Amino acid sequence: QSYCHRLQHDMYFLTSTSRLNEQVVDKIVLQLNRVYPQILTNEEAEKFRNPKASLHTRLSDLLKHLQKKGDRHCQEFYRALQINAEQLFNDLPSRKILKTPDPTEIDTDKEQYMLNDRGPVFFLACFSVAAGLALFWYCCNSETQVIGRARRILGFSPIIIGRHVRNICMLYLEDIPRN
Protein backbone atom coordinates (compact mmCIF):
# COMPACT_ATOMS: atom_id res chain seq x y z
CA GLN A 1 0.00 0.00 0.00
CA SER A 2 1.48 3.33 -1.03
CA TYR A 3 1.94 6.17 1.42
CA CYS A 4 -0.50 8.35 -0.55
CA HIS A 5 -3.24 5.76 -0.17
CA ARG A 6 -2.42 5.37 3.51
CA LEU A 7 -2.56 9.14 3.98
CA GLN A 8 -5.93 9.30 2.24
CA HIS A 9 -7.15 6.51 4.52
CA ASP A 10 -5.81 8.30 7.64
CA MET A 11 -6.97 11.81 6.65
CA TYR A 12 -10.25 11.75 8.59
CA PHE A 13 -8.54 10.33 11.66
CA LEU A 14 -5.83 13.02 11.59
CA THR A 15 -8.16 15.96 10.94
CA SER A 16 -10.73 15.00 13.56
CA THR A 17 -10.89 17.29 16.59
CA SER A 18 -8.16 17.20 19.24
CA ARG A 19 -5.99 14.59 17.51
CA LEU A 20 -3.23 17.03 16.61
CA ASN A 21 -2.67 20.33 18.36
CA GLU A 22 -1.15 23.44 16.78
CA GLN A 23 2.29 22.89 18.22
CA VAL A 24 2.59 19.39 16.77
CA VAL A 25 1.33 20.54 13.36
CA ASP A 26 3.86 23.41 13.40
CA LYS A 27 6.67 21.00 14.28
CA ILE A 28 5.67 18.68 11.44
CA VAL A 29 5.51 21.56 8.96
CA LEU A 30 8.90 22.87 10.10
CA GLN A 31 10.44 19.42 9.82
CA LEU A 32 9.06 18.99 6.30
CA ASN A 33 10.49 22.41 5.46
CA ARG A 34 13.95 22.02 7.02
CA VAL A 35 15.03 18.42 6.55
CA TYR A 36 16.65 16.98 3.47
CA PRO A 37 15.01 16.45 1.05
CA GLN A 38 13.02 19.62 1.50
CA ILE A 39 9.37 18.64 1.13
CA LEU A 40 7.81 22.06 1.67
CA THR A 41 9.19 25.33 0.36
CA ASN A 42 9.38 28.35 2.66
CA GLU A 43 6.20 29.84 1.14
CA GLU A 44 4.28 26.58 1.52
CA ALA A 45 5.47 26.20 5.12
CA GLU A 46 4.32 29.74 5.96
CA LYS A 47 0.94 29.00 4.37
CA PHE A 48 0.45 25.84 6.49
CA ARG A 49 1.66 27.59 9.66
CA ASN A 50 -0.62 30.62 9.24
CA PRO A 51 -2.32 31.15 12.63
CA LYS A 52 -5.21 33.06 10.98
CA ALA A 53 -6.59 29.89 9.39
CA SER A 54 -8.17 27.16 11.51
CA LEU A 55 -6.08 24.13 12.41
CA HIS A 56 -8.49 21.80 10.66
CA THR A 57 -8.25 23.76 7.39
CA ARG A 58 -4.46 24.01 7.52
CA LEU A 59 -4.05 20.31 8.25
CA SER A 60 -6.52 19.29 5.52
CA ASP A 61 -4.75 21.53 3.01
CA LEU A 62 -1.36 20.14 4.04
CA LEU A 63 -2.48 16.53 3.61
CA LYS A 64 -4.06 17.23 0.21
CA HIS A 65 -0.93 19.10 -0.88
CA LEU A 66 1.31 16.18 0.12
CA GLN A 67 -0.91 13.70 -1.71
CA LYS A 68 -0.60 15.75 -4.90
CA LYS A 69 3.20 15.86 -4.58
CA GLY A 70 3.63 12.08 -4.46
CA ASP A 71 4.51 9.08 -2.41
CA ARG A 72 7.90 10.34 -1.18
CA HIS A 73 6.33 13.45 0.32
CA CYS A 74 3.67 11.39 2.09
CA GLN A 75 6.35 9.08 3.45
CA GLU A 76 8.24 12.05 4.88
CA PHE A 77 5.01 13.26 6.51
CA TYR A 78 4.62 9.89 8.23
CA ARG A 79 8.23 10.06 9.40
CA ALA A 80 7.67 13.56 10.83
CA LEU A 81 4.45 12.39 12.49
CA GLN A 82 6.26 9.46 14.06
CA ILE A 83 9.00 11.71 15.42
CA ASN A 84 6.68 14.42 16.79
CA ALA A 85 3.58 12.42 17.81
CA GLU A 86 4.56 8.79 18.19
CA GLN A 87 1.44 7.73 20.12
CA LEU A 88 -0.81 9.18 17.44
CA PHE A 89 1.33 7.55 14.75
CA ASN A 90 0.88 4.15 16.40
CA ASP A 91 -2.90 4.67 16.62
CA LEU A 92 -3.37 5.43 12.92
CA PRO A 93 -5.93 3.22 11.17
CA SER A 94 -3.46 2.35 8.41
CA ARG A 95 -0.92 1.19 11.01
CA LYS A 96 -3.50 -1.07 12.62
CA ILE A 97 -4.25 -2.63 9.25
CA LEU A 98 -0.54 -3.25 8.70
CA LYS A 99 -0.20 -4.84 12.15
CA THR A 100 -3.10 -7.28 11.78
CA PRO A 101 -1.98 -10.65 10.44
CA ASP A 102 -3.32 -12.16 7.26
CA PRO A 103 -6.22 -14.46 8.23
CA THR A 104 -5.13 -17.04 5.63
CA GLU A 105 -1.58 -17.16 6.98
CA ILE A 106 -0.79 -19.92 9.48
CA ASP A 107 0.63 -18.71 12.74
CA THR A 108 3.41 -21.21 13.38
CA ASP A 109 3.72 -20.41 17.08
CA LYS A 110 0.02 -21.00 17.64
CA GLU A 111 0.10 -24.13 15.46
CA GLN A 112 3.07 -25.49 17.42
CA TYR A 113 1.20 -24.90 20.66
CA MET A 114 -1.93 -26.56 19.33
CA LEU A 115 0.02 -29.68 18.34
CA ASN A 116 1.91 -29.92 21.63
CA ASP A 117 -0.71 -28.80 24.11
CA ARG A 118 -0.95 -32.17 25.87
CA GLY A 119 2.66 -32.38 26.95
CA PRO A 120 5.23 -35.13 27.24
CA VAL A 121 3.25 -37.31 29.66
CA PHE A 122 0.50 -37.78 27.09
CA PHE A 123 3.09 -38.69 24.45
CA LEU A 124 4.74 -41.24 26.76
CA ALA A 125 1.36 -42.75 27.68
CA CYS A 126 0.37 -43.15 24.02
CA PHE A 127 3.76 -44.55 23.12
CA SER A 128 3.64 -47.03 26.01
CA VAL A 129 0.19 -48.24 25.01
CA ALA A 130 1.28 -48.67 21.39
CA ALA A 131 4.49 -50.48 22.40
CA GLY A 132 2.58 -52.71 24.82
CA LEU A 133 0.02 -53.65 22.19
CA ALA A 134 2.75 -54.38 19.67
CA LEU A 135 4.65 -56.55 22.14
CA PHE A 136 1.44 -58.35 23.17
CA TRP A 137 0.51 -59.05 19.54
CA TYR A 138 4.06 -60.13 18.78
CA CYS A 139 4.29 -62.52 21.75
CA CYS A 140 0.78 -63.97 21.53
CA ASN A 141 1.28 -65.20 18.00
CA SER A 142 1.06 -69.02 17.94
CA GLU A 143 4.21 -69.49 15.85
CA THR A 144 7.18 -70.77 17.83
CA GLN A 145 9.60 -68.77 15.70
CA VAL A 146 8.19 -65.58 17.20
CA ILE A 147 9.38 -66.53 20.67
CA GLY A 148 12.85 -67.31 19.32
CA ARG A 149 12.97 -63.93 17.62
CA ALA A 150 11.77 -62.20 20.76
CA ARG A 151 14.47 -63.99 22.78
CA ARG A 152 17.12 -62.75 20.35
CA ILE A 153 15.81 -59.18 20.50
CA LEU A 154 15.61 -59.17 24.28
CA GLY A 155 19.07 -60.75 24.47
CA PHE A 156 20.54 -57.61 22.91
CA SER A 157 18.56 -55.24 25.06
CA PRO A 158 20.64 -54.65 28.21
CA ILE A 159 21.62 -51.32 26.76
CA ILE A 160 18.00 -50.23 26.41
CA ILE A 161 16.39 -51.78 29.49
CA GLY A 162 17.87 -52.84 32.82
CA ARG A 163 19.21 -56.35 33.47
CA HIS A 164 16.46 -57.17 35.95
CA VAL A 165 13.71 -56.28 33.49
CA ARG A 166 15.46 -58.24 30.74
CA ASN A 167 15.79 -61.32 32.99
CA ILE A 168 12.08 -61.19 33.85
CA CYS A 169 11.14 -60.93 30.18
CA MET A 170 13.45 -63.83 29.28
CA LEU A 171 11.94 -66.00 32.04
CA TYR A 172 8.47 -65.15 30.79
CA LEU A 173 9.42 -66.10 27.24
CA GLU A 174 10.89 -69.39 28.46
CA ASP A 175 7.71 -70.21 30.41
CA ILE A 176 5.42 -69.62 27.42
CA PRO A 177 6.50 -72.79 25.48
CA ARG A 178 6.05 -74.91 28.65
CA ASN A 179 2.40 -73.89 28.99
Structure description:
With 179 residues, the chain is mainly alpha-helical. It folds into 2 domains: 3-97, Death Domain, Fas, CATH 1.10.533; 115-145. The chain is built from 11 helices and no strands. It is rod-shaped, with a radius of gyration of 37 Å. The model is unreliable at 106-113 (pLDDT under 50). Its main location: endoplasmic reticulum. Residues 38-96 form the CARD domain. It is a single-pass membrane protein.
CATH superfamily of the largest domain: Death Domain, Fas
Q: Biggest sheet: strands, sense, closure?
A: none
Distance between the amino and carboxyl termini:
79 Å
Judging by the overall fold, what is the CATH architecture of the largest domain? Orthogonal Bundle
Class of the largest domain in CATH?
A: Mainly Alpha
**What count of domains describes the coordinates?**
2
- Average pLDDT figure: 77
The total count of strands amounts to: 0
**Which percent bin holds the helix content?**
over 70%
Order of helical and strand elements: HHHHHHHHHHH
Estimate what percentage of residues fall within beta strands.
under 5%
Q: Give the count of helical stretches.
A: 11
